[in-house]
Amino acid sequence: MTTAETAPRPAPESASPPPPEPSWILLFWRLPAALAAIVFALDQTTKWLVLRAWPGESPFPQVELIPGFFSLVHYRNQGAAWGIFSDHTSLLALVSLLVMVGMVAFFRHLTEDVPERAVALGVVLGGVAGNLWDRLFRREVVDFLLFYWRDWQTRSFPAFNVADSAITCGIAVFILSSLFRREKEAGPTPAGGDA
Questions:
Q1: Which of 87, 113, 164, 194 is flagged as catalytic?
Q2: 151 included as an active-site residue
Q3: Model pTM?
Q4: Which one from 134, 143, 151, 194 is the annotated catalytic residue?
Q5: Number of C-alpha atoms within 13 angstroms, CB side, residue 49?
Q6: pLDDT tier at 90 (50, 70, 90 boundaries)?
Q7: Based on the structure, what is the number of domains in the chain?
Q8: Is 118 contained in some domain?
Q9: Could you tell me if residue 52 is inside a domain?
């Protein structure tokens, strides 16, 4: 037996362990936080433009962009949608702050690592932050987008802003994702199984 045959063979290299999963903080700061910042900046910029175009006290003019359908306005809202809780601006600000903290703290649990839910929560977070800023520093929310149908303006949808749009769209995407992802994961009922 030769020396080469008796020499111990090197142990095979063990497979390298998979890289650790990024923490939820890193997952949050990649895209959702950037989207939140963009929504917040867009919301505050548009509100600043409205305040600059229509300074002073109300009533403000209404600029009709699409006759019988869409106008730019300048409304001040101390409450939530349709002006509800208008006497509780501080309470609404506190609720908004708690919602923001909860969304960040439970971000991974809420999204379950589903990409569209992370995007949706980022957009919602930016919208909540935009209206919270108004309540803290203006003591009222600036609304300027008014949709209606012909002369039914008195029964129209309330005026809103970019933050409101972001919150509504983000929640809609989150709900749709929750519904359709659940159906996909459940899969079709097996043949012959109980209904």
A1: 164
A2: no
A3: 0.74
A4: 143
A5: 11
A6: confident
A7: 1
A8: yes
A9: yes
